[in-house]
Specification:
The protein has helices spanning 2-18, 26-31, 33-36, 38-47, 58-61, 66-70, 72-84, 100-103, 120-125, 127-134, 227-239, 256-277, 279-299; strands spanning 55-56, 108-114, 139-146, 152-156, 163-171, 178-182, 185-188, 194-197, 203-207, 214-221. The protein is of the alpha+beta class and 300 residues long. It has a domain at 55-253: B-lactam Antibiotic, Isopenicillin N Synthase, Chain (Jelly Rolls), CATH 2.60.120.330. Strands 1-8-5-10-3-2 form a six-stranded antiparallel sheet. The chain has a four-stranded antiparallel sheet with strand order 4-9-6-7, with no helix packed on it. β6 and β7 form a beta hairpin. α12 packs across α13. The radius of gyration is 20 Å and the shape is globular.
Length: 300
């Protein structure tokens, strides 16, 4: 039975690696979080009630989201007010593990909600948007995100396939030089228009224009064909994904994962310093750790 589980894990990891047209290098994929989540993600794909293509059509598959787009100008007004207050920003501390690497390349955010009720700061500063989100239960997480001129997000894939990503353009360059690329397909943001994509495909973004980009960024619960799959998805979201909650300001919730992230980040800084001194030693320990985990799984 142990070897059956090992085989299923490896088969799922191989599927995730070769899924789509764009792939990470094998060395990076071995250490990518999507590899460790592969068995659960393959189950999510198999039970999905909507297509598992890189892009989806929100109007066709999620009609309940229509009020967000219909009232996008009101949502934009609150986002622009936040920007004037300099509240759309990088994390003040090491308490946003999910997006920590994005901040180094100019990306900024203001959380509206994260697999829970609205952040207190969001309810106070964005009453219209948070009320709209409250009326659409399939929206599990939401934030305003900013991508200033010259900023970029390197190719990556999100770890969990239980949701789909919605982007609604609020203040955008309306220029093809500002785009997101999902599995080799590009979409350029436009004011008042939206797109939806599967964030477990490799994607990256760039603002090569001279103008700022602000969007409403939402995680939408993936609809499932079976009640047990829907229950599993919600259990994982509540017990694991919700632990990644990050605050905008004092008084907002910080999830358990982010409470301990600063300690792991200190270790990460030491590993980066080792890489600068000796790449050979760094990669030896890196792959030795992976081999040890695999050996432990096989041994157990």
């Amino acid at each position: 039975m142990k070897w059956v589980f090992v085989f299923l894990f490896l088969a799922a990891a191989v599927y995730v690696h070769f899924r789509g047209r764009v792939r990470h290098r094998l060395g990076r994929q071995l250490l990518d979080h999507s590899t460790f989540m592969a068995p659960i993600n393959v189950l999510m794909y198999a039970c999905s009630r909507v297509p598992t293509t890189p892009f989806l059509t929100p109007e066709q598959h999620f009609p309940e989201l229509a009020p967000l787009r219909a009232r996008w100008q009101e949502v934009r007004a609150e986002a622009l007010h936040l920007r004037e207050m300099q509240q759309i920003k990088a994390a003040d501390q090491y308490n946003d593990v999910g997006f920590n690497s994005f901040f180094r390349r100019g990306w900024k955010r203001f959380y509206l909600k994260w697999y829970d009720e609205a952040h207190p700061s969001a309810a106070e500063l964005c009453p219209v948007t948070t009320q709209l989100l409250r009326e659409v239960p399939s929206v599990k997480a939401a934030m305003f995100t900013e991508l200033p001129p010259g900023s970029e997000l390197r190719p990556h894939r999100d770890p969990y396939a239980g949701s789909l990503r919605l982007h609604l353009g609020l203040e955008t360059p309306n220029d093809d030089a500002c785009f997101i690329d999902v599995d080799g397909q590009r979409y350029s943001w436009r004011d008042g228009e939206w797109t939806m994509f599967d964030e477990t495909y490799i994607h990256w973004a760039q603002n090569g224009s001279q103008h700022n980009r602000i969007i409403l960024f939402c995680d939408i619960e993936r609809p499932m064909r079976f009640a047990w799959a829907r229950g599993l998805n919600r259990f994982i979201a509540k017990r694991l994904i919700a632990a990644g909650a990050s605050p905008n300001s004092e008084g907002d919730k910080t999830g358990a994962i982010n409470k301990i992230f600063k300690y792991f980040y200190a270790l990460r800084l030491k590993s980066k310093a080792l890489k600068e001194r000796s790449k050979g030693t760094y990669y030896f320990f890196k792959y030795a750790a992976v081999a040890a985990v695999i050996a432990l799984i096989v041994w157990l």
